[in-house]
Design a protein that fits this description.
Oligomer: single chain
Structural class: alpha+beta
Order of helices and strands: HHEEEHEHHEHEEHHHE
Shape: globular
Radius of gyration: 19 Å
Number of strands: 8
Length: 272
């Protein structure tokens, strides 16, 4: 009975830790609105045009990480499904461009994210001590979906304590016997290992889901509109993502990522 009681207490503690993770604020909903904004005056992006807004998550674009050479959007927001903000900003003179999409969320239980977070806090999953890659040649995988030299340099130049959220745009390769849905299922095999590796380096899962409806088409065609899924992970610092390469499970899943993706764009953002 004592052992059973301790297991129950441990289980409840892990679940409670999980409920306090950022993803659980978002996963109260079956779907959310993902909003991308190009502010007319980026210098005032944090104080102008969004006064009084209480999104589920909000980030300022820091630097491009994979797939593009320069930033286009200035803000990303995750909003409740009934938010009126997309319509309010669509015709606002404060924004040069707006993209809004409904995203059907992949639900990750509080116990799962709590267990991963607890394992890191207890030292059962730690950031490896091995050396970081010095060049793109030392990183495994398809070159077109890896961070280029500029992204590595931007990560090194960022403040060491800068928590960064990597926002991923995902387009899947149609695969024989299942089309893009098979591509998504294949990518999810990589995603399961990536989630563990993210927590190993001190990061956290934020959200993932399928773009079910484009609410506002952007003027810019380089990013949203043709994507299948969106996902985001939080890292304690920009360099943390490079330590994932030293995780055997993660490296073993890279073929799933490389075979399932037609293309991807990853943007480093700073939450505020």
């Amino acid at each position: 009975l004592v052992v059973l009681g301790l297991l129950v207490i441990a289980g409840v503690s892990i679940w409670m830790l999980g409920t306090r993770q950022p993803s659980q604020v978002i996963s109260r909903y079956d779907s959310v609105i993902f909003l991308a904004l190009k502010h007319a005056n980026p210098a005032h992006v944090r104080t102008t045009g969004l006064a009084g807004v209480s999104p589920l998550w909000r980030g300022s674009v820091a630097f491009p990480f994979i797939g593009i050479d320069e930033n286009y959007w200035t803000d990303y927001l995750i909003l409740p499904p009934d938010s009126a903000l997309p319509d309010e900003v669509k015709d606002s003179t404060g924004f040069e461009d707006v993209f809004a999409a409904e995203v059907e969320l992949v639900m990750v239980p509080a116990f799962v994210v709590g267990a991963l977070r607890a394992m890191h806090k207890l030292g059962l999953m730690k950031r490896p001590d091995g050396p970081l890659p010095e060049s793109i040649d030392e990183v495994e995988g398809r070159l077109d979906i890896l961070p280029p030299v500029d992204a590595m340099n931007a990560s090194r130049a960022a403040a060491p304590g800068m928590q960064v959220t990597m926002v991923n745009y995902l387009e899947y390769t149609p695969m024989e016997g299942g089309g893009k849905n098979k591509g998504r299922r294949t990518y999810n095999k990589y995603g399961a290992e990536a989630m563990k590796a993210v927590h190993m380096v001190g990061g956290q899962f934020l959200f993932a889901g399928r773009i079910s409806k484009v609410l506002i088409e952007p003027k810019n065609t380089m990013t949203p509109g043709e994507w299948d899924d969106l996902a985001a992970m939080i890292y304690p610092d920009p360099m943390a993502i490079f330590y994932m390469e030293q995780n055997a499970g993660y490296k073993g899943a890279l073929d799933f990522r490389d075979n399932s993706l037609e293309r991807t764009v990853v943007i480093a953002t700073e939450a505020y």
